Amino acid sequence: MPRRPPLPTRRRKELNDLEANPVDFCCGGPKGDDLLDWGTAHASRRARAVDPRPHQVLTGPDGTAYEGGAFQLDLKFPTEYPFKPPKIKFETKVYHPNIKTDTGEICNDVLVSNWSPTLNVRYVYTTLHELLKSPNVDHPLEPEIAQEFASDRATFDKKAKEMVDKHAR
């Protein structure tokens, strides 16, 4: 008897888990009925208070240049999920060494090299939140920004905050 693929059930289970036990700094889910196409964003507590409907939002970590920002994300799940990670990009412009400023693409090393089928969407959200807290200047997609982060943190923070104010509030 052929085995049914567990993929839609897996994504549905993860969605149910996230709805029952939300991640404080991120919320998201399918953009519609398609379990392969999710949106996410860091939703600030303030944003949730104003509009409690589910957002596809990742909130900037406290104590960073991204604090107070609400970042829209796009997650596309391959049909091979969970054996392959979702494709992720920031829809909101971000000034960050590991995120392409013009496309929102994130550094492949962040998820692809460390991916295993035991990981899930909650792990993805946590990893992205940690990436905003602690950029990896050894594997940048934006080398100039990585150099600035490493050598002139005050200028980096100023530019990152300006981009948050312009695009993520």
TrEMBL record:
Pfam families documented for this protein: UQ_con
PROSITE patterns recorded: UBC_2
Highest taxon above the source species: Eukaryota
InterPro entries in UniProt: UBC, UBQ-conjugating_enzyme/RWD
Domain UBC core: from-to ranges: 6-169
SMART domains: UBCc
Protein name: UBC core domain-containing protein
Species of the source: Aureococcus anophagefferens (Harmful bloom alga)
Lineage start: Eukaryota, Sar, Stramenopiles, Ochrophyta, Pelagophyceae
